[in-house]
Fold this protein.
Amino acid sequence: MSLSEYFDNAEGTGVLATADSTGNVDVAIYARPHVIDEDTVAFIMNERLSYQNVTANPKAAYLFKEDAPGYKGKRLYLTMTKEESDKEVIDQVRRRCSVKCDEGEANKHLVYFNVEKTRELIGG
């Protein structure tokens, strides 16, 4: 199953792990990634710690646990490749808009990552 098919259909919880330039780690809850192609995903990020970290250190990891019995999901090992701050471009990839959608729009970024490796949640 392709990444696009998987994330279009999977329900669950995602966690993005990042580190700053000196290796201080942060983890944050993140929605499913926007799958651009099988080698590229993107996240809409606010100007908070995760965004600051990937601009200083492009390596990140994303863990997704499905809302299902047991431990099903994916781990993605990522490298940031570029970012886009144009609101129209961000709106084109956005899945849905929450009540807070208009808050801080100028501080949102669409951050693209190369998928270096994909692994199941449990196992090799």
